[in-house]
Amino acid sequence: MCNLYSMTSNPQAIRDIAKVLEDRTGNLQPLPEIYPNTMAPIVRNGEGGRELLMARWGMPTPPGYLKGHKMDRGVTNIRNPTSTWWKRWEGVAHRCLVPLTAFSEPERLHDGKSQPVWFARSDGEPLAFFAGIWCRWTSVRKLADGETTDDLFGFLTTDANSEVGAIHPKAMPVILRQLDELDVWMNASVSEALRLQRPLSDGMLACVDPPRPLE
What we know:
Layout: E1 5-7, H1 11-17, E2 22-23, E3 31-34, E4 39-46, E5 49-57, E6 77-78, E7 95-100, E8 102-108, E9 114-121, E10 128-142, E11 146-158, H2 162-165, E12 172-173, E13 175-176, H3 179-187, H4 190-193, E14 205-208
Parallel strand pairs: 2-5, 5-11, 6-11
Antiparallel strand pairs: 1-3, 1-8, 4-5, 4-7, 7-10, 8-9, 9-14, 10-11, 10-13, 11-12
């Protein structure tokens, strides 16, 4: 599953493509490596329209999986949004767009180790969006911080297409590339929005070099 992605696009491009009316990120810097339980930008529906803000990657873990654990690192990838636990966040108020420029899946090597393989749009356009959900939740995300209340997000997964499946056959993130797809995900009924939970067509992704870390 995808537990590493990058967002190095121009913030203005995010605002323009996602029809953001309020930017609450401040001075958004390129993020070449985004890991679980760290902060990243999302676009959600606010009272005055779509807003861009920072949130922590990892939705609340179902309680049954937290027994014996002192903290909740969160669930990054969501395969079944209509299950009892996730269903509460499937409506328009809790959907979000997660901007990305590339994402990684682990390739298992012959020695048992793994290495990240990066994918991006094959058409040369830099920006795409994961179909995500978000919530505000109180939990212990890091022991040093104790209990905190955070805006959290995760994104949907689906069957892998041929490019991703060659590396990680089980699943790939749900990626939205077209403007009409963004509007459907953010505005449509649950049944219509969840029709977008499908793999990208073969050929729409290409393997790319790893994002360069900031100096």
